Amino acid sequence: MFAYIARRILASVPVMIVVALFVFLLLRLTPGDPAAIIAGDMATPAQLDQIRQSLGLNEPLVTQFVTWSGQLLSGDFGRSLISRTPVLTLIGQRLEPTLSLAIVTMIITLVLSIPMGVLAAWRHGSLTDSAVMAVSVLGFSIPVFVTGYIFIQIFAIDLRIFPVQGFKSISEGLWPFFSRIFLPALTLATIYIALIARMTRAAMLDVLGEDYVRTARAKGLSERVVLFRHALRNAAVPILTVVGTGFALMISGVVVTESVFNIPGLGRLTVDAILARDYPVIQALILLTSGIYVVINLLIDISYAFMDPRIRY
Amino acid sequence: MSFLANASAFKPSRLVRSALLASVVALSGFVAAPVDAQEIRAVMHSGIRVLDPVITTAHITRNHGYMIYDTLLGMDENLKPQPQMASWEVSDDGLTYTFTLRDGLKWHDGGPVTSADAVASLKRWGERDGGAQMMFKSVESLEPTGDKTFVLKLSEPFSYVLELMAKPSGLPTFIMPERVAKTPAGESITDYTGSGPFKFVEAEFEPGVRAVYEKNEDYVPRDEPPSWTAGGKVVKVDKVTWVVMPDVQTAVNAINGGEIDFIEQTPIDLLPLLQANPELTVEVLSPLGYQTMARLNWLNPPFDNVKIRQAAMTALGQEPILAALVGNAEYMKSCGSMYGCGTPFATDAGSEPIMSGPQPDKAKAMLEEAGYDGTPIVLMQPTDVPSIAPQPVVAAQLLRQGGFTVDMQPMDWQTLVTRRASQAGVAEGGWNMFFTNWIIPEVWSPINNPMLNGGGKEAAWFGWPNDPELDEMRTKFAQASDEETRKTIAADIQAHAYEVVNYIPVGEYTIPSTSRNSLSGMLKMPVPVFWNVEKAAD
């Protein structure tokens, strides 16, 4: 197992190098000039050139890439071209809101979607099954910003249970944190609940017809034990894959939900950086995202071995 | 045994039930927590990222400048320069200006503000500001003559010195410590020590999220009542936080829910949601408003031909464009003055072609006379900026009706600002036409107005008109010593600028602000400032 993990980590190094090179070149080939964003509307060509010079943007591409790679190897992601804030500080400021949103969303999703999926499979073809599927289709079909505004109108404006927007760190207290993260997480969860409930239902339907399920029932085990201990565990591999990639997607940024609820997460940072052509920030964010995908895929693969004893590395 | 029949196995325990009950009670009792009575939470028109108010003309950075820096001079509501940090005396020949800093000026780190700081700041400003660059061509020397005095000597008359130093927008004369002001003008500063009425709380700054300002307890305001950027800057709250909300609907919900106190710019189409709430006040704080305009590129065909530029202006009209941009008569008006209506130099001189509305038949005739060969007009449309996105769409249709072939190219604003800096031909990435907006104080005189510069490829603003006659007239304006002569020259400049189609103003508009009624004392002026503002308990 450890040899497998080491191999996977080593294999990710060339992936990251290719990503870094690709992102660097792609950004430089995209039209846009950070100097123009900094200088504002009144700048003359000479003033723009002066700013480009001071930011090192007039250097040849190879020189810029070598400088950036050298910084990366020493753990320095550089500074934002626009605000001059260190890139790691910017990412650090946005990491907690993003992680909080992703984790709470995933908790809500798993708590609701797995039982829904199991129930729908167990009651296959019944009204319950149809109801679960209808809820899934609805959750999948309504755009997330519409769901968000509906939740805000009901829970924040009409009932005044939660604030409309914003984020508070968990260090400022459990309720301030929870009251602000719950609605955005619930909004985002509607999509994942739909996805994972359907996936759970499909995977469960596959295994519920298996001999070992019949055997378990014949042994007189309760339905709860049959469903959750025998069937669900065997259906877990595809579900885990979707949960894992869904989680990675959420960490790499869910800009619409972040905007509707004013959560200062990585999604907004990414969009802002792209619009401003803030090269060091975009590069770092894409590297971070790639790293997250590598790690989460690795964790998913490792978890297969725990969920299914037949899988060995 | 069915799953549901065994549901009792899933009944919550007493402990869980108690916890649920407690949660419901807690939830139902929760009302959005009121913010600190001494903190103003404001949503500004954009998030602040660049913190150097000299390197950029971005309005949000200018607003930041007014929070933490002071200006040498202020401008009052009658558009007259007034002392702010400094008073002044002018020699009889008008060539020597002696400035004296007032008592009590201190940096946020406690050090005294000296004339060396003021001189260094003015020199850096002189490298960036268009009007100041023109002024510095006439400056013989600018030197400190004591801790609190400095002298500006001119080599030739330039009578617009005080107006430039007092201007409220573009690049105002924010004064920084000498060590900071010595930063090269093309490089951003990294030390945010000011002497203004608020201090910047750097530790709480999150670009794109929030900027926090706390009251500068050591600031000594002037005794006069506040009037625009002149008079006493008395701070009446402990803290101002600028919260960035990229979604305007969220900002509207937040102010309705009492989570924020102020929205600087309220989209017109969302006004009904705010005007229905008696706890809110919706008003225009900057009655002078904005000018929206089209710029043509003099370097590329077909707009290198003055007759074709004139045909384009004849094909356009202000009202259709304003209707698409604003759509509410209360917040828009046609205006033929390049200096903005309601300003000292406002004039209709030469504006007849644009003020007559779209004249497609006349435009077609003019094009025929000019020998227009159907060369497409590359019109850049920024799709991501709501205040500039509609104008090109309407203009494209009006130009087509006037006989032009138009190639409207949608792009993001960042691509547009990069491409507009290109002096290449259209096939090599150049362009023919784009739109942008200015606040009126940025265009209200021939010196301030960035478009009225005929310096060609080297010195003029994007579009690069090569117009020595215009520059000669601007110099005369700068040298004129009395107001009437200035007005006459300003009118002549405008008539000439329309004649050669330097640019095409397509109307003016205002944007209302929204504040909770707990705020009082917001000053009506072109720049949103937070001195003089009080906050009562909501």
UniProtKB/TrEMBL annotation, chain A:
GO CC terms, sorted: plasma membrane
PROSITE patterns in the record: ABC_TM1
Top-level taxon of the source organism: Bacteria
Chief location of this protein within or outside the cell: membrane
Residues in ABC transmembrane type-1 domain copies: 95-300
Pfam families to which the protein is assigned, alphabetical: BPD_transp_1, BPD_transp_1_N
Single biological process term from Gene Ontology: transmembrane transport
Family: Belongs to the binding-protein-dependent transport system permease family.
Name of the protein this chain belongs to: ABC transporter permease subunit
Species: Jiella pacifica
Highest classification ranks of the organism: Bacteria, Pseudomonadati, Pseudomonadota, Alphaproteobacteria, Hyphomicrobiales
From TrEMBL, chain B:
CDD domains: PBP2_NikA_DppA_OppA_like_16
MF annotations from Gene Ontology: peptide transmembrane transporter activity
Entry annotated with the keyword Transmembrane helix: no
Family matches, as InterPro entries: Peptide/Ni-bd, SBP_5, SBP_5_CS, SBP_5_dom
GO biological process, one term: peptide transport
Signal peptide span: 1-37
SUPFAM superfamilies: Periplasmic binding protein-like II
Keywords from the UniProt entry: Signal
Cell location: Periplasm
Solute-binding protein family domain sequence ranges: 81-445
Principal cellular location given in the protein's record: periplasm
Protein family (similarity comment): Belongs to the bacterial solute-binding protein 5 family.
Annotated protein name in UniProt: ABC transporter substrate-binding protein
